[in-house]
Amino acid sequence: MPLNNLKSQVERNHDARILGHLPYNEAPKEKLVLIEPNIEVHMDMRDSLLKMREEAKKDGIYLIFLSGYRSINLQKDIFYSLKSIRNQEAAERARVSAPPGYSEHSTGFAIDIGDANQRETDFEPDFENTDAFRWLIKNAAKFHFKLSFNKDNKYIDYEPWHWRYEGSIEALKVFESSNRKL
């Protein structure tokens, strides 16, 4: 194979992942809105997120928001501090937490959701066994939300609590590369 063809093939196959995570820009502060104390999200997703919670409540499901926007600096602290505390190598830590600059949370379009009736499942794979998760699987797409890290993800551990918003042009652009079949 000629060198220039090999180079273009390598460029097509390279998607800028680091430890399985794609890079994301940090949302501008002026595009973030507070939805609960200490939880900000991108303004494009606010109304859909709150409407989804209200619709779930009508069905007897009480969704709680655990985490939204995270600055790249906060993600840096989370990634490196927990890596050190847990004596983990970077690749091991990246299975459960994105390196700084590679978290969907920094876009403002990601939300971690829990079940108010089963708080012991917060940030746990067992969240998939809750009524809240079953409701989300059936209904989240109506509100433009998608499960980010499913069981088939070969890079990142399954996170049934982690959902991302894809209901605006800006959100679609942000997640375009992760939605492509690479």
Automatic annotation (TrEMBL):
Domain D-alanyl-D-alanine carboxypeptidase-like core: 39-167
Cross-referenced CDD domains: LD-carboxypeptidase
Family annotation (InterPro entries): DD-CPase-like, VanY-like_core_dom, VanY/YodJ_core_dom, Zn_M74/Hedgehog-like
Pfam families tied to this protein: VanY
Record keywords, A-Z: Carboxypeptidase, Hydrolase, Protease
GO biological process: proteolysis
Recorded GO MF terms: carboxypeptidase activity
Gene3D superfamilies registered for this protein in UniProt: 3.30.1380.10
PANTHER family noted in UniProt: D-ALANYL-D-ALANINE CARBOXYPEPTIDASE, PEPTIDOGLYCAN L-ALANYL-D-GLUTAMATE ENDOPEPTIDASE CWLK
Full protein name: Putative carboxypeptidase
Organism: Prochlorococcus marinus (strain MIT 9301)
